[in-house]
Amino acid sequence: MRFIVAVGAALAGLSMGGGATAAGQTHTRSQYGATTAAVVDSKGNMQVPADYRTRYQMLGTWAIAADKGAGAKEMHVVYASPGTIGAYRKTGHFPDGTVLVKEVFKTNTKPMTTGTVSSASTLDGWFVMVKDDVGRFPTNKLWGDGWGWAWFAASDARKTTSTDFRKGCQSCHVPAKASDWIYTDGYPPLRR
C-alpha cells in the first residue's frame, strides 16, 4: 500500500500541469497520467500493470519459429495502454506516457485438424516499455532513446531483471529504430 501511495504522490508532482521534468520542461497529466503512474515510480522503476489484460488494447501477436521442426517456440502477445491506438493512428507517433506490455509465452505445438498448431502455454515473462519524450530519468539505466525498457520474469511482475536497456533490451529493437524502436508493421490496429 505504501508503494502505491508513494507512486501516486511522486508522479502527481510530475503529472500535474506545473511539474518540472529533468529537462526543465513541464507537462500535463494527460501527457503522463494515471495509467503510467501505475507502472512507473518516482525513480523510474517499472512494474507490470496489474490490469493490462482488461484495460489495455491488444496490438497483436507474434509467433517465434521453432529452432527445429514445425511450429513456434514462443508467442508474444502485445498490449498498449488505453488511447494509444487512436493517438498513434492520428499522429503516427506513440504519445508520451504510452505503456506497451508484451507477454512472452512458451508454446505447445501439436497436430490438429487445421494442421500443425502452436498455442501459448506457460508464461515466461513480460517486456514493458514506457514512452518518455522528455528524458525524465536520465540517471536510470533502464531509460533512454525515448523509452523506459524492462524485462520481468513470470515469477515477479514487480521487479525487473533488466539492469541496462542498451545491453539487455535495445539490441532486439535495432531493426525497428526508424519506427521509434517498435515493430509497428506487426500491429494491424495501428494502421490508418
Automatic annotation (TrEMBL):
Record flagged with keyword Nuclease: no
InterPro entries, per the entry: Cytochrome_P460, Cytochrome_P460_sp
Spans traversing the lipid bilayer: none
Organism taxonomic ancestry: Bacteria, Pseudomonadati, Pseudomonadota, Betaproteobacteria, Burkholderiales
Keyword annotations: Signal
Domain Cytochrome P460: 49-184
Signal peptide location: 1-22
Name of the protein: Cytochrome C
